[in-house]
Amino acid sequence: MIFNAFIIALREIRRNVTRSFLTVVGIVIGVAAVVTMVTLGQGATDAVRAQIANMGSNLLIIRPGQNWWSKGVTLLKISDVEKVKEQVTGIRLTAPLIETNVAAMAGQRVRFTSIQGTTPDYFEISNWQLSSGRFFNELEVTQGAGVAVIGETVRKELFGRMENPIGKKIRLDKMAVEVIGITKAKGQGGFGDDLDDNIIIPYTSMQRRLTGKTSENSINQIMISGENGYPTARILADAVLLMRERRGLSGNEENDFSVFDSLQIAETLTATTRILTSLLGAVAGVSLLVGGIGIMNIMLVSVTERTREIGIRMAIGARARDVLLQFLVEAITLSCVGGIIGIVFAYGLCDFLSTRVGAPFVFDAKVNAMAFIFSAGIGVLFGFMPARRAAQLDPIDALRHE
Amino acid sequence: MSASPLIKLKNLTKIYGMGEAAFHALRGIDLTIQAGEFVAIMGPSGSGKSTLMNLLGCLDKASSGQYWFKGIDIESLSQDQRSLIRRHALGFIFQGFNLLARTSALENVELPLLYRGYSAKRRHQLARDALASVGLQDKERNSPAELSGGQQQRVAIARAIVSEPDTLFADEPTGNLDSRTTAEIMDLLKQLNRERGITIIMVTHEDEVASHARRTLYVKDGLIDRDTSTAEVLTTK
To answer: Which strand (E) or helix (H) includes residue A154?
Structure first.
């Protein structure tokens, strides 16, 4: 009986290709939107997680100012880096970080990129690997040597097809540096930034020859790597106390610096992407709902338009429940077909968008299955009212209907 | 003669509306129709002949009185049960043919069998046979729009007889057809009546068409005014 209702419904759909197509479009768009948004959102969350892992574990960062983006506050001192390492327990490594943006030139090629001045420990703290060459050493830091470790993006931009530009010179503003190492590509950061678009040089070279700031307060950031197994929360609390003392803050003054914990940053970032994902998913869900209402609308019109046909079917021996089943199966078939097309569509869309928005495309069978079940549910929900209206028609009135 | 007649009506009435505005479409019909009869129902518009037809065809419920079809008390049945009577024992043809548009002749004829839950193979076979029996074996794939009026009515007849009903109800079956096609359709109906023993009950307002029937009921003001049975019917019984 269900099977025959299915045949009847399929014949009806085939009989009205245009109408069926228009009905399905809404569902296709809705399902495609939901699946695309959720898939890309999950890809973004995964990317952020992978990025955090890239950053290195047990990582803490001290920055001047109350927020990450605070400007115009007193920078940190190089002595802070040493004191933190000395006086806070549980710390394995520390490194200062001075950041600025500069035009890097090699021959005729120019690349505006970010320069980081630091010490050798930074490479380990931040999990940098070499693809060729070497990192600079303590001696070069002391000397303020003109040496640079460059990221993969900078290498590509400045040296093009030359895979190994070790020993080549780069001009950074007034300073010339020699490329001594190239880092392995890390890809995108948690904020969608390109982590390989950078040049790392000794902080002393940077102070003397680039920023010109040799004063005490010139450090943008202190990178800290905690000992394995030592709770970062304890390091964080101790570092805050020490920094308050060093910056001369009295009892009720607020911190004019912040200490970030990589774990905490990771949580914030993943929470943010997750919220964005559900938000986008919800917006897309609304379009799926609108698609469902579209089905109901067209089915209702179709019941009126097909009143006479319903009368014929009833005269021939269709019971009310046969008519109900027919219209319900029609609505469900349409929404399921729409769901399948939507999923296929979303696959292409995710593939197309993932590289452009920078979120990896991870196919998730669960999301697709959910979207399909949901679209079928919409067929039931919004097909029922029109179907019941059709089933409640009086055969004589329906037959007489013009 | 069988134990019970095919159709027996006792004081059947149909009233539309209520109170002052009530309209008495049928005012107490008593009627007996035997299996195998070919009956024409005539009468001016508003006489109640269509109402009578709808009641006989189990499409509507009477206001009072009784209707036995093959001994079954139709008035005591639910709407779904009456649907099943229509599905298994009745066939309908209409003035406007009432075929499904954009649907092939074969699929139109298959329709009643779909509701009976027959297999695809059996449906095709029976529908082909029915189309062949109305002389349209070469029009299976054509949609109604590609067929003439006479051919469309033949498809409708094939659809009505494909489920081998006892009784065929025809509502002005030739109302939209020219005289030559009318004669053809009437010949087909007579042939079905004669060769398959299908009881035919036909509403018409044309004397010429009614003359093909062997019994004519004249309905006037909700009552059967005259009931003429030709001698032929009486002798064959």
So the answer is: helix A152-159
